[in-house]
Design goal:
Blueprint (H helix, E strand, L loop, with lengths): L72 H5 L18 E3 L10 E5 L1 H6 L11 H8 L10 E3 L2 E4 L2 E5 L5 E8 L5 E7 L14 E2 H16 L6 E14 L8 E12 L5 H9 L3 H15 L10 H23 L1 E2 L21 E2 L23 H16 L5 H29 L9 H15 L3 H8 L4 H6 L7 H7 L4 H13 L7 H11 L7 H12 L4 H10 L7 H5 L20
Antiparallel strand pairs: 1-3, 2-9, 4-5, 6-7, 7-10, 8-10, 9-10, 11-12
Helix pairs in contact: 4-16, 4-17, 5-6, 5-8, 7-8, 7-9, 8-9, 10-14, 11-13, 16-17
Bound molecules: 2-acetamido-2-deoxy-beta-D-glucopyranose (NAG) (5 copies).
């Protein structure tokens, strides 16, 4: 049988683990101050009720009053929409519109905090989360004195078609923070009200989609995948009408707000809108800014800098998508407006992680054509890179345009190389061998035929000693491998795998291989049923499971007792099969 890469790249022609301190998100009942569900509007810049503290070890800032945004590079660099009134419109010759978040009307509650983000990125002491000022800040109910909230104008290709102006329809960029490591981060609220880009939306986000974004962006970070981050999740009782499955049954849900962070929120669509509207000098300005700020390896005086940028983004995007594939992640809405120029994962909507290995898995149940299925992601990457190329077109000369085609074609090789590197590591293999592609492809075929659990297959593979593989001796508790074992080609595969492990050399031991594999194959991912279970409780005002999941997913490679008790490394429960991923968010 001829198996090649094209098997698992159907149409494509073909971690480092971060050690973290477990920071359990504090429960709201522990907070003396957020118990107070008073209505907070733009009135709260007086001192908080909670004590200000500074942690002498980490030099964390103990009070939000002592914390401030940096001077905004975005405001200094780009033209701002002259219209200051907040109504839906087409915006021209501007990159941002100034617009205030809409305060929530009912009491707000801080229900989860990602402490590593709070402390390691924002330099804030955990005590600040107890203050009403912080609560008001992260819910959009107050803005800091030095903040000019912005909504970003962008366009994009949705499901393959040009969609014209889109933009931040419910997000507000509060400001840029430069932390003590010298990193500049953009803080953005999501679910914070209407903007000039809201189109027909209401500017709000519901609790379930906010829980998913909050948890998944953190989970991805700890899986070692480039992503935006989230620091807080706030919920209110403001009613939001949503027809969750677009089936004519709208119901009232609760409004929630997530404060999320990225080094930059610029997207492919940020450039596309300018190219489409022929605002070429602005297009050049944004592109130059992106190069100077985020691509230090590109010389800003190089006449080929736009080609160099394109080439960098091609590699980084191929790398990102290979990483998604290696953890079984499907983004769900890879429109060009949801695709970062920095190749980080952004805009978590109807995403999903594979349970069983079904390459045609489509996380968005309304995506009937499966455009954004798991297996299509590498191809969509090419489509999106082609749109980026079109957006940069007017900045390139004839020769550069020609070369950009060659660069684009290089995507496939870069992707394939990264994919193989990641899967070799998942299998604990050193070096390169001719048979590696076959070994990976055959394993994936067996996994597909037997519908084996993607995550646990790789995780449990590490528990096999070389002798177990050679003798085809699989312990009963390795349930994911038991599924594979029944396949007619399993014997062939395990012999090849055993032979290949021998090529690692004599110094490699079972224990070393196991440690390496366990450092790249997570034991816990945010399975849909886990998110769903936490959301059901959250909708009844119990956020304990959201916080527990956050804690577990901050350490996805380590076996954790509470996770084991909850069955997070076991077969998904029966009810999980019936879950449909919510589409409207
Ligand atoms: C809660 O807010 C109200 C109104 O602002 C205030 O009177 C009350 O003292 C606050 N309670 C606490 C516990 O901070
Ligand atoms: C809010 O902050 C400004 C500037 O820091 C200050 O002048 C003003 O008095 C503050 N308002 C309240 C109500 O504390
Ligand atoms: C944080 O606040 C608590 C009580 O509000 C206090 O006991 C603790 O010492 C504070 N932490 C620091 C580092 O000051
Ligand atoms: C992705 O972009 C589309 C528009 O193309 C938007 O409707 C959708 O909300 C975005 N997804 C997320 C998760 O923000
Ligand atoms: C899911 O797919 C449908 C059909 O293409 C699309 O209209 C919808 O916007 C998608 N959902 C999200 C959240 O993007």
């Amino acid at each position: 049988m001829a198996l090649s890469l094209s098997y698992f790249l159907p149409k494509l022609a073909v971690c480092l683990m971060i050690l973290i301190i477990l920071c359990i998100a504090r429960t709201d009942s522990e907070h003396s101050c957020d118990d107070n569900e008073s209505r907070l509007k733009y009135t709260l810049n007086e001192s908080s009720h909670c004590r200000s503290v500074t942690d002498s070890d980490k030099h964390l800032i103990g009070s939000l009053e002592d914390w401030s945004f940096a001077n905004s590079l975005l405001l200094d660099t780009f033209p701002i929409d002259k219209e200051k009134k907040n109504y839906v419109r087409e915006v021209k010759d501007a990159i941002f519109s100034v617009v205030l978040p809409t305060p929530l009307q009912t009491p707000v509650k801080l229900v989860a905090v990602a402490h590593p983000v709070l402390e390691d990125i924002l330099d804030l002491h955990p005590n600040v989360t107890k203050s009403e000022y912080f609560l008001a800040f992260v819910s959009g109910n107050t803005i800091l004195a030095d903040s000019t909230p912005l909504s970003h104008r962008y366009g994009g290709h949705q499901f393959g078609d040009w969609a014209n102006q889109l933009g931040d329809g419910r997000a507000h960029l509060l400001g840029e923070y430069v932390n003590r490591k010298g990193e500049r981060w953009e803080l953005q609220l999501k679910g914070s009200g209407l903007t000039p880009y809201s189109r027909r939306g209401d500017g709000k986000a519901v609790l379930r989609s906010s829980v998913r974004e909050f948890l998944c962006s953190e989970a991805m970070f700890y899986l070692g995948i480039p992503t935006s981050r989230a620091v807080s999740l706030v919920v209110s009782n403001d009613p939001v009408w949503r027809d969750q499955f677009y089936d004519g049954h709208p119901k009232i849900e609760r409004a929630a707000v997530v404060l999320r962070l990225a080094r930059s929120w610029f997207r492919i669509g940020s450039l596309e809108i300018l190219a489409h509207k022929k605002e070429t000098s602005l297009l050049r300005k944004v592109t130059d800014f992106v190069i100077e700020q985020y691509f230090p390896t590109i010389d800003p005086t190089d006449k080929n800098k736009y080609l160099a940028l394109f080439s960098e983004i091609i590699s980084q995007t191929a790398d990102l998508i290979a990483r998604w594939m290696a953890v079984g992640f499907a983004h769900g809405v890879m429109n060009t407006d949801n695709f970062s120029l920095l190749s980080i994962t952004i805009d978590y909507g109807p995403f999903g992680f594979l349970d069983k290995y079904v390459p045609s898995f489509i996380p968005n149940t309304s995506d009937d054509e499966g455009r954004y299925s798991y297996q299509n992601q590498p191809d969509i990457g090419i489509f999106n890179m082609n749109q980026l190329r079109a957006a940069l077109w007017s900045l390139m000369d004839r020769e550069q345009k020609r070369q950009s085609e060659v660069v684009l074609r290089g995507y496939v090789d870069i992707y394939k190389r990264r994919f193989m590197e990641l899967f070799r590591a998942k299998l604990g293999l050193f070096g390169l061998s001719e048979q590696d592609e076959y070994i990976v492809a055959l394993l994936l075929k067996i996994m597909e035929d037997t519908k084996a659990d993607f995550t646990m297959t790789f995780r449990q593979m590490a528990d096999l000693n070389l002798r177990d593989i050679e003798n085809d001796d699989i312990a009963d508790e390795l349930w994911a491998l038991k599924d594979l074992h029944a396949h007619e080609q399993w014997q062939e595969w395990s012999q090849r795998y055993a032979d290949r492990i021998h090529e690692n050399g004599d110094e490699d031991t079972d224990q070393h291989r196991r440690d390496r594999m366990n450092a790249v194959n997570p034991r816990y991912i945010l399975r849909n049923w886990m998110a769903e279970s936490a959301i059901r409780k959250a909708e009844k005002d119990d956020f304990s499971e959201v916080r527990t999941l956050l804690q577990i997913l901050q350490n996805p490679f380590e076996k954790q007792e509470i996770a084991e008790i909850s069955g997070y490394a076991g077969t998904p429960p029966d009810w999980a099969k019936k879950i449909r991923v919510s589409c409207s968010s």
